[in-house]
């Protein structure tokens, strides 16, 4: 199983790193808007708190766009093109395919997060090493539950051309409402962007020795578990037969 997953991981890595559109959405566009929206910071660096709050939002965008397009919709494309059925025939099971896809996107978003974080920190004269530590921790613990959550897209009985624009547009209100404070932290379950943002803030507080919010920590761990359970259920109902003619 692990060898087959590794082979699919290598295959999907070759695909994603040659995909200029994926690189554009996951790295180039976030970096462009980070600079464009804060041109004044180039000559007048912000305080570290303002910089963190902004870069956390961009991390949320990068992870979400990878989860939606690189995992959920990408697996739909494999199904609709007949590759999922063919790969299952080769691998005898769809699990190595899904693990290989998630692993390749995890690696891809981690590389992009590191590049984005280093570039932004250098441009805006922020402590690169400190922000990079937070980014690496986020890259290790956050993408897998988020990717698992968005496997439910792959289980939908519709063609990817139909739902791809809907979910791409949906991502922007998720990012927008991620900044809205909620008293009931369990509501973070409803917005994965808020989940990413709160994990980022929690990790930042821990790294900077500002304390550890135990209640929030437990809540986020429970949410991670729920996301992974949704992923497991979604995996079981992912079809391998192309939905020809299905709108």
List keywords for this structure.
247 residues; mainly alpha; globular
Gross geometry: globular
SS elements, strand count:
0
Report the uncertain regions: none
- Write down the overall mean pLDDT: 87
SSE pattern: HHHHHHHHHHH
Rg calculated over all Cα atoms? 18 Å
How many discrete structural domains? 1
Strand content: under 5%
- Count of helices? 11
Q: Strand pairing plus helix content: what structural class?
A: mainly alpha
Q: How far from one another are the termini?
A: 34 Å
Proportion of helical residues: over 70%
The description of the largest β-sheet is: none
Protein name: ABC transporter permease
Keywords: Membrane, Transmembrane, Transmembrane helix
Transmembrane segments: 21-43, 55-78, 98-123, 129-151, 163-180, 216-238
Describe the structure.
The chain has 247 residues and is mainly alpha-helical. The protein has helices at residues 2-17, 20-36, 48-80, 83-91, 95-123, 128-141, 143-149, 151-154, 160-177, 192-207, 214-236. 75% of the residues lie in helices and 0% in strands. The chain starts with a helix and ends in an 11-residue tail after the last helix. The mean pLDDT is 87. Helix 3 packs antiparallel against helix 9. It has one domain (2-236).
């Amino acid at each position: 199983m692990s060898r087959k997953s590794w082979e699919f991981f290598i295959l999907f890595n070759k695909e994603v790193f040659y995909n200029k559109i994926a690189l554009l959405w996951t790295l180039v566009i976030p970096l462009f808007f980070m600079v464009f929206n804060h041109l004044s910071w180039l000559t007048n660096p912000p305080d570290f708190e303002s910089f963190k709050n902004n870069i956390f939002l961009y991390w949320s965008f990068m992870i979400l766009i990878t989860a939606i397009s690189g995992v959920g919709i990408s697996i739909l494309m494999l199904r609709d093109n007949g590759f999922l059925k063919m790969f299952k025939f080769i691998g005898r099971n769809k699990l190595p395919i899904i693990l290989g896809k998630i692993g390749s996107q995890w690696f891809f978003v981690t590389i992009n997060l590191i590049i984005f974080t280093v570039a932004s920190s250098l441009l805006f004269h922020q402590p690169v090493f400190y922000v990079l530590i937070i980014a690496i921790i986020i890259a290790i613990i956050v993408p897998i539950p988020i990717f698992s959550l968005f496997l439910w897209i792959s289980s939908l009985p519709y063609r990817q051309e139909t739902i791809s624009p809907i979910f791409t547009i949906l991502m922007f209100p998720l990012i927008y409402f991620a900044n809205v404070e909620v008293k009931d932290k369990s509501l973070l379950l409803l917005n994965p962007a808020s989940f990413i943002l709160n994990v980022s803030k929690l990790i930042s507080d821990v790294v900077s020795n500002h304390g550890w919010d135990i209640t929030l920590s437990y809540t986020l761990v429970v949410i991670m578990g729920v996301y992974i359970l949704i992923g497991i259920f979604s995996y079981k109902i992912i079809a391998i037969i192309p939905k020809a003619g299905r709108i």
